[in-house]
Amino acid sequence: MKKFLQRIKALLKRILKRSASNSQQPLPLINTRLETSIPTVSPRWESGLVLVCSQCANEQLGSTASEDLENWLKSRLKFEGLWGDFRVVSTSCLGVCPRMGITVVIVSNGSHGNSPCLIVNPRSDRELLYSYIKQNKD
To answer: Where does the source fall among the domains of life (predicted)?
Structure first.
C-alpha cells in the first residue's frame, strides 16, 4: 500500500509540474494520456483462455458439473502438453444462462474481440469442446 501511495504522489507531482510549465496554455480535458507505470507481461497462455461459467450448471446438472468440466479440461491439456499455451479459468455468470449445459467462452489472440460462446453439455460434449479448443492453437 505504501508503494501505491508513493506512485500516486509521484504521478500527482508530474501532473502539477506539467500544468505549471504550461500555465499559458489550457490543459486538454479530452484524450489526456496519464503517464503510469503499470507493468505489462506476455502471458504463457497466448493460444487461448478458456472461461468456464461456474453458475450455469448449479440448478440443472448439479453443483459440480462445471467444476468437473474445468478439471477435465485442465487434465487433458496437461496430458497433451498444451497447458502452458491454454489456461482454463472458472468465472461467474457470463449472462448467457442456458437451460441445459454450461457456457464456455474461448478467448484467443486471433479472435479480435469475436470470441465464441459455446453451450456445452459437460458430459457428452467434452471431446468436441477439446477439439474446438485445440483448433485455436496458433
So the answer is: Bacteria
How many whole angstroms separate alpha carbon 127 and alpha carbon 121? 11
Q: Yes or no: is domain 48-135 CATH 3.40.30.10?
A: yes
Which is nearest to 100 in space by CA: 124, 121, 69? 121
**Model confidence over 25-35: pLDDT tens digits?**
554 555 556 66
CA distances from 60 to 53, 56, 93, 97, 128 (A): 14, 8, 15, 11, 21
The rounded Cα 64 to chain-centroid distance in angstroms is 22
pLDDT in tens, 73-105: 999 999 999 888 899 999 998 888 888 889 999
Residue of 66, 114, 108 lying closest to 90 (CA atoms): 66
Alpha-carbon gap, residue 69 to 137, rounded angstroms: 20
